[in-house]
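Researcher: Please predict.
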Amino acid sequence: MLVLLSGPSGAGKSTFVKELLASDSRLEFSVSTTTRPRRKGETDGIQYHFVTEAVFDQLVAADAFVEWASVHDHRYGTRKDHLEQIRARGKLPLLDVDVQGGMRVLDLYGEKVVSVFLFPPSWAELERRLRSRGTDDEEIIQARLRNARREVGFASRYDYYVVNDNLFRALGCMRAILTADPCRRERWLEPPLRTD
């Protein structure tokens, strides 16, 4: 099993993921590989695995990614071997990817995925959150709002919806999903007791 989380920019995924990982030892974050330059304070292997364009090309040619995409002139991807390493440690991989990558993960892994779409409480709150960051100009904010509407259109492909209107409540919903999902009938090869 692996856990897939998607949602629009401004839904609060970063804080949600940080708190979820701190409260659930079964999970391990799947660190993406990127061609984006490392920012001050970032550590290779913690925020991202930083690689050159040439190395990324080699990984694509070797079919090393579960999913990858170009975002804002840089490429990001989830490596297959990294997911296997997490599983080998007895942990559930937690992927925080956009809907484009999410569709690829769902197509590749199907029923092995616990997929969750994280919603902001409203469009007005989403816009407020994006503006309160103070890091983007108006053009980027408008682009993020347009992208958010497009991304929400993919939510029906996900198993579960969580509304991040209150972090404590949203985390409680996520923990309930992770507790209940292994009990789903589809997760069992056969019933615990047989009639024959």
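Model: The domain at 2-184 is CATH 3.40.50.300 (Rossmann fold).
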